[in-house]
Amino acid sequence: MNEGRCVKCGSCLRACPVLNDPSGAQFPGPRTTGVDAPRFLEKGSVGQNALRCTMCHACEWACPSSISITRSMLELRSELTGERLPGHRRMLENIAAFGRTVSTEFSGWRESGERTLYFPGCIGLGRLTGLTESVSSLLTSLGIAHDISRDALCCGSPLLKIGARGEAEDLRRRNAEVFSRYDRVITSCPGCTYQLREVYGIEAEHIIEVLRGSDLRANLEGRWALQMPCHLKRGLSPWTADDLAAILGKAGVDVVRMPGEDTCCGGGGGMLSGFPGTASSLARNKMEMYRKAEVDGVITACPFCSLNLGREGIRVLDIGEAIALKD
Amino acid sequence: MRKDVLIIGGGATGAGIARDLALRGADCLLLEMGDYCHGASGGNHGLLHSGARYAVKDPLSASECAAENAILRRIAPFCIEDTGGLFVSLPEDDAGFADVLVRSCRSSGVAVKELTSQEALDSEPGLSPRLSRCLRVNDGSIDPFSLVQANLEDARSAGATVLNHCSVTGMTVEGGRVSRVEVRDRRGVLSSAIVPEVVVNAAGSWVSVVAEMAGCHIPMGLDQGSMLVMDGRQCSQVINRMRPPSNGDIAVPNHTSTILGTTSRPAGSPEDTTVAIEDIELLVRETSAMLPSLRNCRAIRTYGGVRPLLGGGGREASRSFAILTDEGVDNLLSVAGGKLTTYRLMAEKVADRVCGMLGNDRRCRTHLEPLGPSADGKGSSIPQARLRRKYGRMASSIDTSDARVICSCEQVLRSEVKAVLKAGDALTLADVMRRTRAGMGYCQGFDCSLSVLEVMLEERSVDPLPLLMEFLEERERGFSQAGGDQLRQGLLRQQVLKGVYGLEGKE
Amino acid sequence: MSHVLVIGNGAAGTFSSWLLARKGWKVTMVGRGTPGAALSTGCLRSVPSACRGEISEFLDNEHMPWATGEREGASRIGTSFRCWMSPSHTTWTDDEKPKSIAVAGLEGHPSLQIRVASALLNERGVRAEPFMLPGSVPSDVPLTSWFRNDEAWEELAEDLQRSSAEAILLPAIVHLHEYPRLDRLERRCGRRVLEAVSPLGAPGQRLADLMLSKARSAGTVVWDGRKVSALEVQADEVRGATIIGGSEARHVATDAVVIATGGPLVDGLVLDGRKIMDPFGRFQTVRRGDALRGGYHCTNGKLISTDGRVMTNTVGAGDCLSAERREYGSGLTEALESAYRAVRALEDA
C-alpha cells in the first residue's frame, strides 16, 4: 500500500464524515488508522474505535497523494487483536448458522434454472424484502427472466469489513458453485457488486447498470433528493452514480441535487452493527440536510442506505421501487 | 562542590558508568554538554550486534558483543526489538566467505545457523530472490535514547546527580591530579566548580578535547558514518550483507522505519557528521541489492555519527575499547572506542578501575539488576502499547487517561510530552523529541512541532520562536537533499512555514 | 459548440471552466483529490494585474464577503500575514488594527495554538492574551464539527463574555455557508471577531467549495473523483482523453484541453527523485531556478509538446506551469491569472 506518500495535509480528516460528527470523536481518524498505524509493530493494538469507520472512501477521494486509505484500513481490520464488538459477533454467529448476516425473511424464491441470477444480498433478503420484490418485478417487466436462489449465501463483504477473512473465503467457495450455474448476475447492493467483481471475479451488474438505456417512468409526485451510495460512487464508478440521477430525471422524477448527497449515510463498513449510535448520528446529519431542502423523500440504490436512513423517519426508496417500465 | 566521581559525557558509556558506580554506592555527578546521546550514541545504527560482523577480523569484539547482547536482552528488553538478523550473500559476493564467517562465529561464541534460500525467503519475503547463501544470527534493533535514559534513571535512583546542557569549560591540574573542574550550566542550576576525587572522561568523540583541558594528549581516529532513514519497516529482521565488511551492508528495522547504513570516512572533528550525497546513493544501491523494495521507498532523512575510534580509525580499526590514563594526571581516566552493544562492559571495566581508586570494594551489579520491563506491545491504543518501549519502567508515570495524540507519525500522546517536560531536563524541542519520538516520523515535525511548543509554553515561560526555528532547521538539515515524496513534504512545509507563517529559516 | 476538457479542479481549473462556460464553451472539468487551493489560506496574497474584475466576480458570493486592499492578519501562530484579498473577518487594514486581542481556542487543539500565538502577537506589538475555551477535542477532529449548531455558538458567545479584549481571535471553524455566524457572534459579543489565517483547514476548503460551485452554476459538467490517465494527441492537437473513475475507464473526445493539474504537491506533476516529469508524457517539463515551482513550459498559454511543437488546442494554467520567481504562498493569484491567460489563448486559436 502506498501510505508512504502522506504529506500530512489533513485533507482526509476534513473529508471524514465520522470525524466531522461529534459522536465520532473517539474514532482515531483515517490518517491514524489508514496511514500511520500500518507502520507500527503494535498496529493490532489500534483498538476497537478504529472500527468506527463506514469505509465510505471520502478520505481516499480527498487525498492529494492518492493513498488507498480505505484499502489500508481494511487490511488493518484483519490484524486487530482484542475482542469483537457484540454486533459483529452476532453477525458471525448468523453466518455460521445459516450463511447470512441477518435472518432471512424473504420467501419468494425463484429456482427455475434461468440463466440470470438476481442476488439481492443479506439485507434485501432479510430486512428489506419489499425492495427485493420491487427489483424482481422490474427485472421481469424488462424481460429479464431470473432466479433468486436460496443457495446463494452472503457475498462475504461485511465479513471482510470486520476482518474475518477466513469466514469470507469460506462463503466465496460455497457461492462460487452457485454462481457457476448462471451467465449473468444482477445485484441491488453496490457492496455485493463490488465484492463479486473484485473478489469473485464475476462481471456482476448493479441494477443501475441494467436500467441504463431503457425507457422508464416513475410514478412519483413531489421533490426527491438523492442518497448517492458510497460504494456505488466511490467504489464501483462515479459514472454509475451520475446515471442514478440521469435515469430518474429521464423518468420524470423531480430530482433535487445538493452538494452533500454523496456524503456517507453512516450504515456501511460494519458501523451499523458495530456502533449503531454513530450510524444513527451520521444518518441524522443527512436528515438535517434533506429536511432543510424540504424534499418529500430520498431515492437511493443501496439497501444499507435505505435501512440506515429509513430509521430516521424520512421516506426512502430504492431505485427499483421508484422506477417502472414505461407503458 | 565535592564529588567522588565526575563523569563527563552523557552517552551510553557515561550513563552506563554512572549507573554502575551509583549502584556500588559511589557519589557521582554526570555532566553532558548537550542533551544525552549528543554524540555517537545519538547517531548510530541502532543495532544490537550479534557479533557476527566482527567474527572474522576482530574476534575479541565479536565475543564481547555476543555476551553483552545476551545480557542486554535480559536486563533491558523494553528497548530492544527482538528482530533476529540475517546475513545474506548475492551471486557477485565471494562464495567462500560464508564458510569463513560460520567458522569464525563458531570459534568466537557467536550463535549462527545456515538457512536454505527458501527458508530465508519464507522468513523474509522482501529479500532479493537472487540471494545465494543465508545465515541467521541474533541481531536485534535497540533504541539508544531509551537505553541511556533508563541507565540515567537507575543512576539517579541510586543517588547520582545527572545534568544535561552542562559543559565542562576547564580543569585545574595541581600536584599531578585534577583538583577543580569549571562548568557552565545552561539552565543555571549548577553554579560552583566541581572538586572531584576521580574524573572519568567518557566524552566519546570529544575525549581528546576534554583530555586537553587537563593537559593530556590522546590521539583519536575520528571516523564519520552516514545513515539513511527509510519510511516503514521494510524488513522484519536486521539484514546484513555477507561479505568482508564494507559500506552499505546493513538494514535495521527500527520503530516505524528502516535504517540503512553505513559508510566510513575520516572526521575532522566531533561535529563533522555531514552526510555526502554520494553516501545516500551508495546506501540505497547497496542495501536494495538485498531488499529491492528499498529502491522505491521514501527516504525520510539522513544523519551522521562520529565514531570515537582510537589510533588509526577507519573500517580496519578495532572496535574494542580502551581505558587510558596519563602519567601526569593521576585521577583522570579516559575511555574511548567500543560499541553501543558493549557499553555495559566498558562501563563495568571503568567502574572497576574507579572503585579501585576510591577504595570501594563493591562488585558490579549492572548485569544482574534489570533496567526495565519487557515491552509486550499490548495496550488499548497504539500509543499506549508503545509506552514501555520508550520509557521502560517510567511508563507508568504517563497519564493515559488523556487519549489525545500530539504526533500522528509516531503516535505520541500529549501526556508523554507533558510528563517529559515536567521531569525538567528537556529544554529544547529536540530534547522532547529524543525522549518521546515526536518529530522523528516521516513529516519530521511539520505537524507536531507547534503543538509540542504549545505544551512547552504551558509548562514554563520560554521564548517560542528561537526554540521553534532551532528545531525546524535541525530537522531540515536531515532532508535538504530529499527527493520524491519527502520532497513533496518539503514543498508543503515551505508553503506553510515560509509562505503562511513567514518563518524565515536557513534553506 | 466546442467542447473543452479542463483537467484539474483547483483555482486554475475552476476559474478556466467558469470563464469558458460563460463564453459558450461546453465544459467538462475532471478532477480528483484535494487541490492546492483547498490547502491554502483562502486569501489572495498578491494583487492580480490583468483580470481583477473577473476574479472579483468569480469569487463574489452571498455568504462570504471579501475585503480587498492592503491587509494584515494573524496567522494561526500569531505571525503577521499580509495579503490583498481575504474574507472579511480574517484580516484588517492599518487603521483597523485591534488594540487588544483574546486568542481563543481549545486546549491543545492544533487549529489555534493559543499560547504560541499570543506570545508571537505580543512580540509584534499587538497586545494579546491566551483565552482557553472549555472542552477537549482530539487533534485530528476538525473543530468545525464542534461548532455546528446554534447551541454551540450561543455557548461560545457566553464563554467569550469572560474576556475584556477589544477583539477575539478564533480558530477557523466555519464552513462557507456558515460564514455569517461570525457576523452574528460579533453582534452578540459586542466585540470584533477575527479568524486566524490558517492553511490546511476550513478557509482553503471554503475557497475551493466556492470556486467549484461557481464553475458548476456557469454550466460546467463536473466529473469529480476522476483522473485523466492518458491524452490522445494528433499532430498539434489533443483530440481525446482516457479518464479513470473507480474501477471504470472511459474515453472522451474533445476539441480543446486546459491542463490545470497543479504541481508536484498534489500529484499534478510527477516527481522522480528531484526531477519533475509530465504524467502524460506529452509536454515539455523544464527546470527553471527552483525546479519545483511547476514544470510545463508554455508559450502564450499554449503548452509545448516534448518535440517542441506548440499545441494549438491545449493550454496550461496554474501551479503545473513553470514559474521563475514566486514567493511561497502566493500561488492563488498566479493560478487565477494564468487561467485567464490560458482561456484567452484558447479563444484566440
How would you describe what is shown here?
The complex is a heterotrimer of chains A (327), B (507) and C (349). Chain A is of the alpha/beta class. Chain A has three domains: 3-77, no CATH class; 116-210; 215-325, Rossmann fold. Chain A contains 17 helices and nine strands. In chain A, strand 7 (297-300), helix 16 (303-310) and strand 8 (316-318) form a beta-alpha-beta unit. Chain B folds into three domains: 2-40 and 145-220 and 318-358, 3-Layer(bba) Sandwich (FAD/NAD(P)-binding domain), CATH 3.50.50; 81-140 and 223-307, D-Amino Acid Oxidase, subunit A, domain 2 (D-Amino Acid Oxidase, Chain A, domain 2), CATH 3.30.9; 382-500, no CATH class. In chain B, the strands form five sheets. In chain B, strands 5, 6, 7, 13, 14, 15, 16, 17 and 18 form a nine-stranded mixed beta sheet that branches. A six-stranded mixed beta sheet of chain B has the order 9-2-1-12-20-19, with helices on both faces. A three-stranded antiparallel beta sheet of chain B has the order 3-8-4. In chain B, helix 1 runs parallel beside helix 6, helix 3 (59-75) packs across helix 4 (97-108) and helix 14 (449-459) packs antiparallel against helix 15 (464-477). Chain B is globular. With 349 residues, chain C is α/β, with parallel strands linked by helices. Chain C folds into two domains: 3-40 and 206-348, FAD/NAD(P)-binding domain (3-Layer(bba) Sandwich), CATH 3.50.50; 67-198, 3-Layer(aba) Sandwich (Rossmann fold), CATH 3.40.50. Helices cover 24% and strands 29% of the residues of chain C. In chain C, strand 6, helix 3 (114-123) and strand 7 form a beta-alpha-beta unit. The longest helix of chain C has 18 residues, at 331-348. The radius of gyration of chain C is 22 Å and the shape is elongated. The relative contact order of chain C is 0.19. The B-C interface holds B 402-406, 408, 414, 447, 450-451, 453-455, 457-458, 463-465, 481-485, 487-488, 491-492, 494-496, 498-503 and C 39, 41, 75-77, 79-81, 108, 110, 113-116, 119-120, 123, 136, 138-140, 197-200, 263-265, 271-274, 292, 327-331.
